[in-house]
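Hi! If you just cloned this repository, the fastest way to understand the data is to look at a raw example. We've pasted two of them here, unedited. The first protein comes first, obviously.
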Amino acid sequence: GIQSGPLLAGEQLELTGPVHALLESRAFQIFIASLIFLNAIIMGLETDYPEKPYWNFVENAFLFVFGSEVFMRVYVEGWRFFSCSNAELNWNMIDLIIVGLGLLDVVLALLARGADEGSAMATLLRMIRLLRLTRLLRIVKFLKQLYLLAFGFIEAVQAIIWVTLLMAVVLYVCSIIMVRTLGTVADSDPHAEFLHSHFKDIPTSMLTLFVILTSPDMPLFLRQDGLVFDRPGFLLFLIFFILIGSFGTIALLTGVISECMFEKNMVRIEERRKEQDAFMVMWEQKSAEIYSESFMRAGHKEGVAKAEILR
């Protein structure tokens, strides 16, 4: 059964029954996780061998299992499945969206039967089928380390945006320097064509520096005889730009994501500790109630015995 009434602070949601026991059993969790991995493999095989006639049947079988699981969870949890106080609300919504997209895929497949490959319905069906990949998101739920990594990355998105903005400013400033120093060399310079093609204006210079930042290609400059070694300032700039820009950015992003993962893990540990504390409080209360009832029953029996003796 499901508890009725609003949940109090620290109160645990008590769900019982064979369906809930099945959903919470380790064997069922392993079964669902295995199906998700198998579904991922099937998607790859379907991509490489699309001519096989049985893929739709296999996908519908996966959809039936995943849909049945969601239906059972809604049946067991009731309205709390959609409650904002439910810690699993985000995953519940993801599961509903995944099943909903699968059902939409089935409906569109029936409507598009016999339609031309280039028709709007067939194009829409292909786009919807690409969204089957969202099923793979459920893998994150069953793998703790992958869960921490994914949510650590999500938590780090804001910091990554600021790091990206910082690097854009650095690229812009360095591009101005490059355009004013190398992009305006005289045409008589032996490397004028190369420098003009890579540092002729701010956008081109930023693109060149971005390529250097993401995949340092020193041979590109070393192949230009005398370009680097005849300009020691340019050589020092490239060295420091690659060291600080490329390696520094990677280290900064790694540190930000790692910190977010650590904080997320600490939050999970704290939540688990609070759940255990709430469970202990509930257990103590129930133990006290049982003890009180037993004591009252013992007192009642003793009183009855004394009354019989007095008679």
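Ok, and the second one:
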Amino acid sequence: MRQFLLALNLLAGGFLTACAPEPPAATLVSTPTFPPSVTYTISPSASQTIVRTTTPSMTPTPSASPTSDTCDISQAGPLTILYDDTYFSSGPTPNEMDRALVAAYPEWEAFRQVVFADPWTAGVVFDQASFGGPEYGVNPAILMISVMMRLDWVIPNDGNMYLRAVQAAKEMYPHYVAYYTEEQVRSIYPHIGSAATYSLYRFFGKDEDRLHEWCTIYGEMFGAKYPLKH
């Protein structure tokens, strides 16, 4: 119910009128304004303590690969790799995202981006960037994997992950709204079965192989505790 109410609140935030029946190609959004103190640091000696969260460290939950029904892009009927309530859910936590990311790509362990005088890990960055009031919203783990795939899991030279995360979230959300509200969009893409799936489908340039790759990675990192379809 919480996820459903959040989705309704986002849809009621004044964004709907901006959606065309067939959303145009995503354009670069304006850069969020940061205070002059925003810096990027990466040091082998950086603390592993997650900043801006009180979530205690937990023993990693063994992850399992998603079932073939979840990620199989050749499945009969409209393609649905995730449900809309998952798209707006709040888990995993920043700690869980950091552990999953570092387990797969250890070089991210030392990553910190200083925002508002606080050193944020990648997990905190995506958690903070994932919801923007009535303007946009997307699950932080969904956002993290999407952005990381675009970056090929490499830390960018400027280290500004927060900017990239916000831009990606603002790019993804209009596609969700268009599918959810416009019958014409749904009729153009009858092979897509949910607004959440359509949002990722458009984010990856309608590349179903990339969509399958995204689904598989999510399942390996978070699928056991936070399934895409439940």
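That's it. A detail worth noticing about the second one: Residues 10-22+77-97+122-222 form one domain.
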